[in-house]
């Protein structure tokens, strides 16, 4: 059973995939189950019964198989839907560039989805000329003090070029620092 | 339809219900006690709720009251509901009870749920607001999913309040990073 590792709390997803496996054992596994309902309908047609209205044993067997298929579809749809929701929220939490540890857990279509969503958000923000992903916490002070945790060299910011050596402390503009903090590259210092 | 994508709703639907088949069904391997893969009329089978519900709508089965709502549980809840281990019976006790009450035709499930919830809710909230983080772990194992959500919400609001009082750093690394998970393939 192909199962992508999920970057969020995956306890409920793992539970659902064991349920999916249980469906397989519940059904008659002597034949491929997706053919069973059509086999039963064909058998009913051969016996000369009207498929739409007859309610004999074969009908209920076919019905059970059909309901199982619909249920599996529901589980899978819900899984994909919830993953998409998590991916959409990633843009607001982490920024338009994904760190490697999350990137490796997404499938190709999901990465594509993320890029397109980030691109849409970017074009919307540039149309408004307003960056919506900063200032998630209400403002107290336009500048904050940060300490750099990771060494990532020289960075170009609005008005100056700063060299970020590890463990150096800077007095930095809030909007710029916010994206570094959310990625874990800096931490805020409270005096 | 708003609950189609809701994961908690899907897991609630997986709860087992005992049903009696009114019509025969062939070609299904549901009944483990029969030798062939046909289900006879009048046979008692355990089905998940989603299947039992659909078949009952088409009058193929009739549902009985699940074991989580039987007389034993009722007596225990009337005695002292705060100590009843609902999670081992049914982790989605309240949601499942709400779904099954109109279908089984037992009119006392509703008041039972209400009385259980009222007394347990008081316990949950007082413990969440006053206990230290590790102290009430014994109490947590008997709560259903819904009550656990309430408990965690209360705890996180208390933690946020304390943090606001003390004035810690307001920016944090995104919670989604830094969780090391092994890939499960």
UniProtKB/TrEMBL annotation, chain A:
- Which residues does the UniProt record annotate as the domain DNA replication complex GINS protein PSF1 C-terminal? 140-190
Show the Pfam families listed in the entry.
PSF1_C, Sld5
Domain named GINS subunit: residues: 57-128
GO CC terms of this entry:
GINS complex
Per the record, the domain of life is Eukaryota
GO terms of biological process kind: DNA strand elongation involved in mitotic DNA replication
Keywords, comma-separated and alphabetical? DNA replication, Nucleus
Protein localization: Nucleus
Annotated coiled-coil segments of the chain: none
Q: Which InterPro entries does the UniProt record give?
A: GINS_A, GINS_bundle-like_dom_sf, GINS_Psf1, PSF1_C
Q: Which family does it belong to?
A: Belongs to the GINS1/PSF1 family.
Q: What protein does this entry describe?
A: GINS subunit domain-containing protein
Automatic annotation (TrEMBL), chain B:
| Signal peptide location | none
Main localization of the protein?
nucleus
Q: Name one Pfam family in it.
A: PSF3_N
The answer to whether UniProt assigns keyword GTP-binding to this entry is no
Q: Which InterPro entries match?
A: GINS_A, GINS_bundle-like_dom_sf, GINS_Psf3, GINS_Psf3_sf, PSF3_N
Keyword Glycoprotein in record: no
Name all DNA replication complex GINS protein PSF3 N-terminal domain ranges.
5-55
Q: Where in the cell is it found?
A: Nucleus
Q: Which UniProt keywords apply?
A: DNA replication, Nucleus
The UniProt entry, under SUPFAM superfamilies, shows: GINS helical bundle-like, PriA/YqbF domain
Q: Which GO cellular component terms are attached?
A: GINS complex
Task: Offer one example of a GO biological process linked to this entry.
Answer: mitotic DNA replication initiation
Show where the GINS subunit domain sits. Answer: 70-165
Per the similarity annotation, which family is this? Belongs to the GINS3/PSF3 family.
Q: What is this protein called?
A: GINS subunit domain-containing protein
Q: What is the species listed in this Swiss-Prot or TrEMBL entry? A: Castanea mollissima (Chinese chestnut)
């Amino acid at each position: 059973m192909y199962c992508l590792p999920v970057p969020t709390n995956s306890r409920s997803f793992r539970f659902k995939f064991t349920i999916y496996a249980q469906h397989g054992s519940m059904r008659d596994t002597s034949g491929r189950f997706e053919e069973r309902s059509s086999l039963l309908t064909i058998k009913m047609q051969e016996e000369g019964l009207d498929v739409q209205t007859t309610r004999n044993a074969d009908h209920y067997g076919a019905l059970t198989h059909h309901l199982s298929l619909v249920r599996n579809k529901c589980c899978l749809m819900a899984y994909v839907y919830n993953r998409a929701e998590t991916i959409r929220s990633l843009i607001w939490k982490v920024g338009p560039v994904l760190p490697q540890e999350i990137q490796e857990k997404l499938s190709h279509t999901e990465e594509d989805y993320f890029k397109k969503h980030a691109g849409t958000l970017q074009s919307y923000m540039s149309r408004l000329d307003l960056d919506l992903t900063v200032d998630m916490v209400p403002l107290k002070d336009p500048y904050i003090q940060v300490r750099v945790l990771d060494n990532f060299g020289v960075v170009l910011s609005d008005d100056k070029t700063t060299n970020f050596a590890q463990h150096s402390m800077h007095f930095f503009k809030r909007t710029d620092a916010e994206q570094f903090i959310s990625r874990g590259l800096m931490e805020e210092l409270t005096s | 339809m708003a609950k189609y994508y809701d994961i908690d709703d899907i897991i609630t639907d997986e709860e087992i219900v005992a049903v009696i088949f009114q019509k025969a069904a062939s070609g299904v391997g549901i009944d483990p006690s029969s030798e062939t893969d046909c289900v006879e009329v009048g046979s008692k089978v355990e089905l998940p709720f989603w299947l039992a519900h659909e078949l009952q709508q088409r009058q193929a089965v009739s549902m009985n009251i699940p074991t989580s709502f039987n007389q034993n549980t009722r007596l225990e809840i009337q005695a002292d509901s705060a100590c009843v281990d609902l999670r081992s019976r049914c982790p989605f006790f309240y949601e499942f009870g709400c779904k099954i009450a109109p279908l089984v035709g037992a009119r006392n499930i509703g008041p039972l749920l209400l009385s259980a919830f009222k007394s347990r809710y008081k316990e949950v909230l007082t413990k969440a607001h006053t206990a230290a983080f590790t102290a009430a772990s014994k109490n947590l194992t008997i709560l259903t999913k819904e009550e656990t959500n309430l408990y965690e919400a209360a705890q996180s609001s208390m933690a946020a309040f304390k943090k606001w009082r003390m004035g810690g750093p307001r920016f944090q690394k995104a919670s989604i990073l830094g969780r090391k998970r092994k890939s499960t393939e």
